[in-house]
Amino acid sequence: MIPLSSYLIVAALMFSIGLLGVLTRRNAILLLVSIELMMNAANLNFIAFWRYGSVDVSAQIFALFSIVIAGAESAVGLALVIAIYRHMKSVNVEELKSLHG
Amino acid sequence: MSDPKHDAEHDAKEKAPFAGTGLIKGMAVTAKNFVGSYFDKKRLTTVQYPEERETLKENFRNVPFLIFDQDPEAGLRCVACKICEIECPPQCIYIELELDEKGQSLKRPKVFDVDFTVCMNCGICAETCPFEAIKMDSEFELSTTDRFLSQLADKHKLSKSNEYYHQIKPTEAAAVDAKLAAKKKPPPPKAAAPAATASAPAPAPASASASAPEEKK
Amino acid sequence: MTLEQIGFLVLATVTLSSALGAVLLKNLTHALLSLVLSFFGSAGLFFSLHAEFIGVVQILVYVGAIAVLFVFAIVLTREAQGDAGTLRHLGGRGKILGGLTAVVVGALLVRMILLAPHKLLTDAARAQEGGGTVGEIGMALMTSYIVPFEVASLLLTAALVGAIVIALNEVKPAASTPAASSPPLAPPIGRVR
Amino acid sequence: MEAIDQIFVNAKSFIVSTLESLGLPDWLTLLIGMVLPATLVVIVFPATFAFLTWLERKILGRIQNRYGPNRTGPWGILQPVADGLKMLIKEDIVPRAADKLLHGLAPILVVVPAVVVFAFLPFGRNMVPADTDVALLFFFAVSSISTLALFMAGWGSRNKYSRLGAMRSIAQMISYELPLLLAAVPVVMIVGSLRLTEVVSAQATEGFFGSFTNWFVFTPWGFVGFLAFFVAGMAETNRSPFDLAEGESEIIAGFHTEYSGFKFALFFLAEYLSAIAMSGLAAVLFLGGWNGPEVLPSWLWFFGKIMVLLTIMIWIRGTFPRLRVDQLMGFSWKFLLPLSLVNIFATGVWFWTRASIPGFAGKAAAFGIAAVVLLVTYVFLARINAGPAVQKRTYRYADL
User: Fold this and answer.
1) pLDDT 10s digit of each residue in chain C, 193 long?
2) Residue A92 DSSP SS3
3) Which of A87, A101, D111, D384 has the fewest CB atoms within 10 Å, i.e. the most exposed one?
4) DSSP letter (8 states) at residue D77
5) CATH of B64-184 given 3.30.360.10, 3.30.70.3270, 2.60.40.10, 3.30.450.20
6) Which 3 state secondary structure label does DSSP give D17?
7) Residues of D with CB below 8 A from B26's CB?
8) DSSP for C38-103, written as a single string
9) Do the Cβ atoms of D388 and B46 come within 8 Å?
10) Are C88 and A90 in contact (CB under 8 A)?
């Protein structure tokens, strides 16, 4: 049988990999990718605790809603990235510093 | 201006059939085709080629061929005048005149090549030839394994007998023979050659074609 | 090492390695595809936790929809990094700093999990059976969680409309086509009446 | 009859029991027990694919007033073998600028979902390779993977046409995935579970004649749902009037322009396998899966229904011209989607009236109301989507 801690370790590592991506990547799309990874890690924790903790349906509902929100968030985020790209001709996070629009 | 158009569009939509009936009508047509093809064979128009062969229409033309009357060498109607070589649009005919030792022309082609890969089957050579020497063949099974040399037809491969010409294009061959015979008969006042020669069977035109060019020159 | 543990290890390594790939790979499309692989890996982990519904929804939503969103985003912004999509990471200093913080956070989390005294984490036998059937989730969604369900649908519609409005091509008013009342036929060529 | 019907089930249990008696470790026998149905699926359905290519060319031929292939073997039965060999012998050219990884991986990733999808279909009485309570959802989740594979194929071959083709087919598959799911929702509402075996048993009734009337396709919402599902299924698998992605006339061959030889055959295989799977699911959801009078064994019923649906697909392919991109998208978003949404509403009404009014009156009232609601929306949607009426052509230059 697999102890709960192994699942938590996998989720924690996934979370830190997402964090690594957010901090080091220059492309806005890759930022969104890393954020997806972090949210995925959070989901993994929910379901792990659900299976080993109280087997109550609310955990799955919560995970479901977090997937829904992740979807909505990435849709809007990517729309923003495309709009910015069309304006500034680059998605390089470093160059998007000018606020005068 | 847009008002009549709008009405037209409006009542066109009125008359538009219940949505989907067009689709069903289309399906019915293909269904009729499918079922029909099993019952009356007339529907299936494809000819099973190697086994069944449709008879070729008479004026079907493919690559040219030279006509000889009796003897493949002597009876060759072609006198190497090179009109066809000049007229041929893709320039796929190559002729070399045969000279005797003194350099006189023997009015015979030593070399007569037609490149079948270049020939576009237009039939201009047959039209322009004054001596009815070159005609369009209806032989279409010319595929070979080698791409180049076998497609270059030399004189021997090109020359075919007048009987073959009669066989593949009977009416046209008969017309050509009649014309040749008429040309062979000298003008009526000078020598009242009997009309019989006209009705002479085809084999006689060899001498006719030989004599005809002198007359013209 | 029972079959189940081997399965878990395989899934964990696949997920983590492809997540690393998604973050570190130079070529953008390859990064995206390793992200998809990590989504599959985490869906596999959900299955190993006997939460089939969430695993299937994970595949349906993440792989079927969000990955395609990323694909279209990459396609629409290709020119920015040139065709090979190679990325120059942040300057040396930025990268090290970022990498360092991530590693520190990871190490802290893992250490905390390993040293936690709570028996729940270590006792493998605590895995309960049952629960998580689709019918149960459906009932819960429709009865006790009906309000968040409706709010989520509102959120999705808002996000949908917002994304379209933001990403839509601004139609320059000047360039609007002449009134299309009469069919815009090309003027007759050459024939001067 | 029972023996023939359960022939495969008994065979499997016989093999498993002999293995156990031989003293193999239990996890190995379990593994073999799972592998057996998988090998059956991997053998039977590619064989159906081969038969389908022959059937398609024969039917299309007859529709176009010509014989189909009749040279290779009697009635051209060896044509699939000839095609297969030709595909294998053809040289596999990879464009130099292609992204090797994507280019190579794409055909594999297209075939994988097409085959995995068969694991959830109930082929006959208790003949289900994998039975989970999220089977239907799994079906759609797995079939959405091929969208990404198409992108990889289009993007990997670095060719303008294949990229355009990939974008078009992705847009098409996404916009038709929605009506596909929504058309399946009414069935799930009525049956109350996503497990396909329960869907089939909900449509089964005893008695020789009885087992026909209980199919979902005979209810108003079932009929509309079946049509929407079937049409969206055809669009999802890029078949017939919706095969815009590989429309030869427009963009050469869409996403598989740069493929030749075996990789191209894989795309070909994947398209047909997903067509078979889609008609299989349509049969399970709306035509009562393996239900049918006891005359034939249950699995033969299931294959018969698949073959009938595939013949209809081929028939439609022989009849209708290819749709333009905007018509394709318009049809999905403006016609199929609203229709299937209203269909869900109509199912609710149907179920509620049946529950509240007991007896035959309730059934008739439910049927009537649902039918009226659906008919009105159908006509209304058709009126909206009817394009500009086709007027008599006016030649402006002619009258100069």
Assistant:
1) 677 888 899 999 999 999 999 888 888 888 888 999 999 999 999 988 888 889 999 999 999 889 988 988 888 877 544 444 444 555 567 778 888 888 899 899 888 888 877 766 666 666 677 667 888 888 888 888 999 999 999 999 999 999 988 888 776 655 444 544 445 555 555 544 4
2) strand
3) A101
4) T
5) 3.30.70.3270
6) helix
7) 319-320
8) HHHHHHHHHHHTT-HHHHHHHIIIIIIIIHHHHHHHHHHTGGGG-TT-----S-HHHHHHHHHHHH
9) no
10) no
- Min Cα distance A15 → chain C (Å) is 8
Pairing type for strands B64-68 and B152-153 reads unpaired
Q: Chain C residue with minimal CA distance to A56?
A: C131
Cβ pair B116, B157 in contact under 8 A: no
Query: Looking at the complex, does the CB of residue D249 fall below 8 Å from at least one CB of chain B?
Result: no
Select from C27, C30, C53 the Cβ nearest to the Cβ of D134.
Answer: C53
Task: Find where tokens 């890969």 sit.
Answer: B117
Nearest CA in chain C to B1: C182
**Inter-chain CB proximity D147 and C59 less than 8 Å:** no
> What distance in Å separates residue C180's CA from the closest CA in chain A?
29
The H or E element spanning position D398 is none
Q: Which two tokens stand for residue D381?
A: 């949607």
User: Quick check: C134 contacting A, CB < 8 Å?
Assistant: no
Domain residue ranges of chain B, discontinuous segments joined by +: 24-54, 64-184
Q: Where are the alpha helices (DSSP H) in chain A?
A: 4-24, 28-52, 58-88
Asked if D28 is an interface residue toward chain C (Cβ–Cβ < 8 A), one would say no
Chain C environment of B2 (Cβ under 8 Å): 181-182
Among D179, D205, D190, CA closest to D350: D190
